[in-house]
Design goal:
This protein has about 500 residues and is an alpha/beta fold. The chain has a 9-stranded mixed sheet with strand order 5-4-6-7-3-8-9-10-11, sandwiched between helices. Strands 1-2 form a two-stranded antiparallel sheet. It has a two-stranded antiparallel ribbon with strand order 12-13. Helices cover about 45% and strands about 15% of the residues. The chain is elongated and about 90 Å long. The longest helix has 28 residues, at about 120-145.
Length: about 500
């Protein structure tokens, strides 16, 4: 193993390993002369520090330990004071590291090694690239060593390697500052494209008319949280949307199910599309008419651009890797995750589950921006909802989001699913009985639009949500739309797939 020197930074609690010479005597990537030039330029040029902070993001970008300590002092000065040779010397004195870096003489020598500040940014970029290369070498050496250890679990090791690669890639990502004109051009182009759509929506339509009026469809780069207590219909709601997006609008959708298997998900979709009781689908006890109905209508799902993944305990880093591949190969328009609290941020250490959920939600938002598509994540609500009394008390609030306030902060939209019938149908309390067989979709947070509450119908037999007034009779074919390549027709219905049949394990 190559010799290593461990040091702990102020910005990261975990230890950063600085790579030393390897067995072949090769020195790790470095640019000592450029490091000296950049540090010297920062002390000479007033605006030099600000021009390189988005390139050199941490002291660990420097290879020489003395330079790491000098840049740390510069970071401290930049918060409240100008950076020059004398102020750096004083800050190093306060830190107790002046003699470690070579004393005042070495600091003064740095300024004398600056021929010109004209190439400062270019030099900083080289330093940052060398640092990334060292990180890759360090990661590879660590993984190689563990791979030889037979006590290591290979799956855990692969996940650790993926986490490290993701962490390194995040360091290299930066967005350039641009003048507003090209941004306006892009925004104008999107508005024009939306105006040309028949549905007049700029985002991915859900198929729920009133919800689409509020959102104009789920918008690209948005993180949307769909939250509810168990048995409210979270999975039903998003599977309904997946069917609508993929079948009715031809938008490819990826579903990551951490709770159900792929077969269970498909059973739910068949209940929705084929209008056959879920118990019959699972048992296979169907009448001849139901068999014909199943065979006729299942064809609309066979070639639908719906991609499912039922990896249990999926990490946010695995999700990113799979989602990027799906975006590249299938051009997916939306990602659905069922559900957020079952994910993990494997390979990272956290003081609490709340911190881990915060990292997950932050990375989901970053993924939505990176792929420029909406990411929809289901989330549980805490038990405080069930503890509140009264009709209004059962309505979920933003404070009910389970395990982390960061979910609310990171989300562009938060929607709750609320079915009063679930709480009050067999209760002595007075409630609005017109809500029987219906659900409220509460848009509680909408960063780019209005908040509101819409009503949808809930058809428990087929576990699906429908627009109010939509035809729900499986044998009434007056509302049929041509969809199939072979000329057959099927009835367009919104799915509502998370019903509350007490003895049905699929309905949680």
């Amino acid at each position: 193993m190559p010799p290593v020197n461990k040091r702990t930074t102020n910005n990261r609690k975990q230890q950063t390993i600085v790579v030393g010479p390897n067995e072949a005597g090769k020195l790790p990537p470095q640019a000592i002369e450029l490091e000296e030039s950049v540090l010297g330029a920062i002390m000479l040029e007033k605006d030099a520090y600000g021009s390189i902070t988005d390139i050199i993001k941490s002291p660990e970008c420097f290879y020489k330990v003395a330079h790491v300590k000098i840049f740390e002092a510069m970071q401290q000065l930049a918060q409240h004071d100008n950076i020059d040779m004398l102020s750096v010397i004083e800050q190093l004195k306060k830190n107790g590291t002046l003699e470690e870096v070579g004393g005042p003489l070495y600091i003064s020598q740095l300024t004398s090694k600056v021929a010109s500040t004209a190439h400062l940014v270019y030099h900083a970029q080289i330093i940052a690239q060398k640092a990334l290369a060292r990180d890759l070498i360090r990661m590879a050496a660590t993984i190689e060593s563990k791979a030889y250890d037979e006590t290591q679990d290979v799956e855990d090791l692969m996940m650790e390697a993926e986490t490290e690669i993701f962490d390194i890639s995040q360091k290299s990502q930066k967005r350039e500052i641009v003048q507003i004109r090209p941004v306006i051009d892009e925004a104008f182009a999107r508005i024009k494209k939306a105006s040309e759509n028949e549905n007049k929506m700029s985002g991915v339509p859900t198929g729920f008319t009133e919800l689409d009026k509020i959102t104009s469809g789920w918008q690209n780069s948005d993180l949307i949280i769909i939250a509810a207590r168990p048995a409210m219909g979270k999975t039903a709601f998003v599977l309904s949307m997946a069917k609508n997006m993929a079948v009715d609008y031809g938008r490819p959708v990826a579903i990551f199910s951490l709770e159900m298997s792929n077969v269970q998900l498909v059973n739910r979709l068949m209940m929705n599309v084929c209008e056959i009781d879920g118990a019959k689908i699972r048992s296979g006890v169907l009448s001849s008419e139901e068999w014909r109905q199943l065979e006729d209508r299942i064809s609309i799902l066979i070639d639908a651009p719906i991609y499912v993944d039922d990896t249990p305990s999926l990490s946010v880093f695995e999700l990113r890797s799979k989602a990027m591949k799906l975006k590249q190969e299938k051009n997916i328009s939306c990602i659905i995750i069922d559900y957020l609290q079952l994910m993990n941020a494997s390979g990272m250490n956290f003081g609490s589950r709340e911190q881990e959920v915060s990292i997950i939600s932050r990375n989901l938002k970053a993924l939505a921006k990176e792929l420029d598509i909406p990411v929809i994540a289901l989330s549980q609500l805490n038990r405080s909802v069930t503890g509140r009394s009264g009709v209004d008390g059962k309505r979920p609030q933003l404070s009910d989001l389970r395990e982390s306030g960061a979910i609310e902060q990171d989300a562009d939209m938060v929607c709750f699913i609320h079915r009063p019938e679930y709480y009050f149908k067999n209760s002595t309390e007075t409630w609005d009985t017109s809500m029987e067989g219906k659900a409220e979709i509460i848009v509680a947070k909408h960063r780019n639009g209005a908040t509101d509450t819409i009503k949808l119908c809930f058809e428990q037999r087929y576990a699906r949500f429908l627009n109010e007034g939509e035809n729900t009779n499986p044998f009434d074919h007056s509302d049929i739309s041509p969809r199939l390549d072979n000329g057959q027709q099927y009835q367009t219905l919104q799915s509502k797939i998370n019903n509350d049949i007490p003895d049905d394990p699929l309905m949680g």
